[in-house]
Amino acid sequence: GEQPPTNPLVVLKAARWWYIHGKGGTDPAFQWAIEWARHLATDTPSDVERFDEFLEYLVSVGFTDERHELR
């Protein structure tokens, strides 16, 4: 869907997958998932810059050709 998951367990499972199969703690997808889980757990705004970095990462690995397609 167009909205990120709202179940923190789903988000943490995704973070774990990206940590194991990605670049560890420096993987942008892992970092975004952890930030999103923090947002869900604390009900505070997430870090927009980290989300933008995640979108750039998805473009760089070929998930899509243009960043605007992800919004």
Helix and strand layout, with pairings?
Blueprint lengths: L7 H14 L6 H15 L5 H13 L11
Helix pairs in contact: 1-2, 2-3
What is Rg? 12 Å
User: How much of the polypeptide forms β-strand, as a percent range?
Assistant: under 5%
Summarize the main sheet: none
Give the number of helices.
3
- Indicate the percent of residues in helices: 55-70%
Mean pLDDT over all positions: 80
Class by alpha and beta content: mainly alpha
Which oligomeric form is depicted?
single chain
**N- and C-termini, Cα separation:** 11 Å
Q: Got a strand count?
A: 0
Order of helices and strands: HHH
Low-confidence stretches: none
Question: What is the 3D shape?
Answer: globular
Count of individual domains: 1
Account of the protein in words:
The chain has 71 residues and is mainly alpha-helical. It has one domain (8-70). 59% of the residues lie in helices and 0% in strands. The longest helix has 15 residues, at 28-42.
Short key terms for the protein model shown above:
71 residues; mainly alpha; 59% helix
